[in-house]
From TrEMBL:
Family: Belongs to the alkaline phosphatase family.
Keywords assigned by UniProt, alphabetized: Glycoprotein, GPI-anchor, Hydrolase, Lipoprotein, Magnesium, Membrane, Metal-binding, Signal, Zinc
GO cellular component: plasma membrane; side of membrane
Organism: Salmo trutta
Residue positions binding Zn(2+): 292, 296, 333-334, 408
Identification of the protein by name: Alkaline phosphatase
Cofactor note: Binds 2 Zn(2+) ions.
Membrane topology listed for this record: Lipid-anchor; GPI-anchor
One MF annotation (Gene Ontology) recorded for this entry: alkaline phosphatase activity
Amino acid sequence: CYSSLLSIVCYSSLLSIYVSGPVEEENPEFWRAQGCDLFLCAIPPKVWALPPSQHARILKGQMHNQSGEETVMTMDTFPHAGLLKTYSVDFQIPDSSSTATAYLCGVKTNLNTVGVNAAARNGICKTQKGNEVTSILKWAKDAGKSVGIVTTTRASRKWYSDADMPASAKKEGCTDISQNPSVDPIRVIVIHELCFSMTQRDGRHLISDWQKMKVGKVARYVWNRTDFDAVDPDTTDYLMALFEPGDLRFDVERDPTMDPSIAETTEKAIHQCLWVTSSVSFPVCVSGGRIDQGHHASRASMALHETVAFDNAVAKGLELTNEEETLTLVTADHSHAFTFNGYPFRGQSILGKSPLYGKDMLPYTTLMYGNGPGYKVVDNKRPDIRNVDTQSKDYVQLSAVPLDTETHGGEDVAVLARGPMAHLFHGVQEQSYLAHAMAYAGCVGRDLRHCESRPQHTNTQRILVTTTDDDRNSAPSQVSSISLVTALLAAVLH
Ligand SMILES: *[C@@H]1O[C@H](CO)[C@@H](O)[C@H](O)[C@H]1NC(C)=O
Ligand SMILES: *[C@@H]1O[C@H](CO)[C@@H](O)[C@H](O)[C@H]1NC(C)=O
Ligand SMILES: [Zn+2]
């Protein structure tokens, strides 16, 4: 998710053939212009939230001994919804780096590239230079807002530092995550990662470099729960928390004495960004990246439990913010080759089996994958799972095609919205629209003309709030205080 904000990383190409998209799409203005036009014609109808995660909703209910289908997840309560088209410039089905560039930078790009426009070629480092694009976190920082990032995965799955980067890549002009100046604006980084290779960069120490960059500020780095809990946002300007040597463990396998949950890290990030700047907008990006990894491993139980943990983080975000002044979004970066099928009975375990058998006289699970590690043939037939506990956390759901790791899917993803300007998130849009709509709502980015007419509108909301909450200061100087919490049901790079 956030690597696009942190870094411009060239990946070595996984693909031996180069595929290119339409040439006009290599110009970032192509995507930016779409964003702007869409604003001008955005007529805000009310759309009720589409369920982005039916399976996790049922699981959440069943974890509370309910039937499940009728359960209301926190994200189900968002009043506005839209759909986003996720294709990348060169592929029908995207990876997470191209989608992150779309929803955070507002520009669609090529597969396996991040923070660059589509004129940059996957794996050809020399095409990086001059094609960099900036993200909404940078725009927010430039507008004096504080920003934060929370995720359950590593920051990047390739190079952690210059030390890991092949000499040829460096010579060609690739830069590493730690060199990117856009690291600087980020007030809280809560990444479940303690990446030791990250600590060496040209003989220097990344974490101490990060601390040195914050001249005259209190910049704290923590790696365990005790220190994390002890961080006081009142006396801390910047916080970096890295908990595990790689990705965080799945939430159901987490050691709560060592690692906080995603809801707890979200709470800390919001406090940190909110306390420091009080009434100024604060984009906080929360990413449940392990959901994606659960699906890649075709362990539906893990993916669904991670989604429930993510929903709890969304609930924490809503609890700590105010709907009148905080825009909250929930979206996914892309879909998976995941299917919810058969005719299971009402209330049947979401991780269970269809009551009706296939033509081969064998049962099948409600959740399956189109491809992935779950492909199996036993005696020329699908495996017999009648005596298999498919609800076990380690169960790997069947798939039709054998692959080591299940692929992403190409379906549109939902975006759910709540709070001021939530009506902008409606209809079927390009995924790159999201960055422009967030910038519009938060009054950051390149085109702020509409913000001149905003104060009155925002004031109205403020006065409304003041009548219900006497503690609230409705001074006109606070008109820009629409806060922005972006919760991303997203995966990180891979
Ligand atoms: C659900 O039911 C089981 C078995 O009756 C019980 O052990 C468990 O505590 C219940 N869980 C909740 C959340 O009510
Ligand atoms: C947490 O980190 C601090 C700083 O490195 C260390 O002093 C402390 O012993 C650690 N606590 C635990 C429980 O590992
Ligand atoms: Zn993925």
